[in-house]
Design goal:
Length: 329
């Protein structure tokens, strides 16, 4: 395995490392990849990893078919929580199980390509909180937590049962280097609902999924935007190994490092809005500062706090990656 990938994997397994690796869970600069490398997808990721020092590449994630989104484009971030179609338990019981066998060959081929290139790879599964809140719309979801808690309990169980089937049918066969929970559950000011309610509805159904991944000896990371003070203790209860986001506009990275940096790997923190407007030299300086603040415990992973997309100046993103590559503690 390549040196950058090995450093990332050592960190996800709980070790301290000398300098942070670079990992982007939500890299979406597809036009950039097409222009710079002449391809997209896993092939583009692998070329970018070699060029810019990314420690891991994304492979296709299992389609568990758990989202009940409204007919407008579900990729529109502003509409994602605005209101889905889920409202009755019968909708869960009637939805057929996906055919995982149809997905396996493509994911296996991508996993093999990453292995042949010596790069770590990951895939994503959706956490029950994120999937149910998105499928209902956040306002409907929050009211149902009080008005219809039995339905929320069943919906959470249903999502995690689908995840557990994906572990059995896909993840245990593919054996990615690590898995990422897509778990958006926080705003810039705090959790979307009371953290104790998150525990009440999500912990028990989640524990089985986490256990299955852990029994495969695969590290299990977590993503959410927003303020992490009340979220990280929940992740520690679940024995997750890393949290991505550390959103700069919502968190003080130094505080997160002091409070949690010995217990869980912290990932992210570079603000994409800053990357959009800064000069390359300002990007290099800000990146070095982020690395200095994030890595006192040797458990920091460099990256953007959310998805870098094609609105970013290419030179700025390259300067960011080069500053991470050249960093010396």
């Amino acid at each position: 395995m390549h040196e950058e990938s090995q450093r990332l994997m050592n960190l996800l397994r709980g070790e301290q490392i000398d300098r942070p690796p670079l990992w982007e869970p939500w890299f979406m600069m597809n036009d950039f990849m097409a222009r710079r490398y002449g391809c997209k997808g896993v092939t583009g990721y692998l070329k970018m990893a070699q060029d810019l020092g990314h420690a891991a590449v994304a492979i296709t994630s299992p389609d568990t078919q758990v989202l009940f989104l409204s007919p407008h484009d579900p990729t529109e971030a502003g509409a994602y929580y605005a209101g889905g179609l889920l409202g009755q338990v019968e909708q869960l019981r009637e939805r057929p199980e996906p055919d995982y066998a149809l997905q396996l060959d493509q994911i296996m081929a991508e996993r093999q390509a990453a292995r042949d290139a010596g790069r770590a790879c990951w895939l994503v599964i959706g956490w029950c909180f994120d999937r149910v809140a998105a499928s209902m719309g956040l306002e409907n979801f929050a009211m149902a937590c009080y008005d219809d808690p039995n339905f929320i309990h069943e919906a959470m169980q249903w999502v995690e049962l689908r995840n557990q089937h994906a572990v059995e049918q896909i993840i245990s066969k593919i054996m990615p280097d690590f898995v990422l929970y897509n778990g958006d559950c926080a705003y810039k000011t705090g959790p979307m609902i009371n953290p104790q309610m998150i525990r009440t509805f999500c912990l028990e159904p989640t524990k089985k999924t986490v256990q299955m991944i852990r029994e495969l000896e695969i590290p299990f990371a977590f993503h959410t935007d927003g303020k992490l003070d009340d979220i990280v203790p929940i992740l520690l209860e679940l024995d997750l190994c890393a949290v991505h986001g550390c959103e700069k506009q919502a968190n003080d990275l130094g505080y997160l490092v002091d409070r949690f940096g010995s217990d869980i790997a912290l990932c992210g923190n570079m603000d994409v809005v800053f990357l959009m407007h800064a000069t390359p030299q300002q990007v290099r300086e800000e990146t070095r500062l982020m690395l200095q603040v994030g890595n006192p415990h040797g458990r920091f992973i460099a990256g953007c706090n959310t998805s870098p997309q094609d609105y970013l100046p290419e030179g700025n993103y390259i300067a960011f990656c080069e500053a991470i590559r050249d960093y010396k503690p």
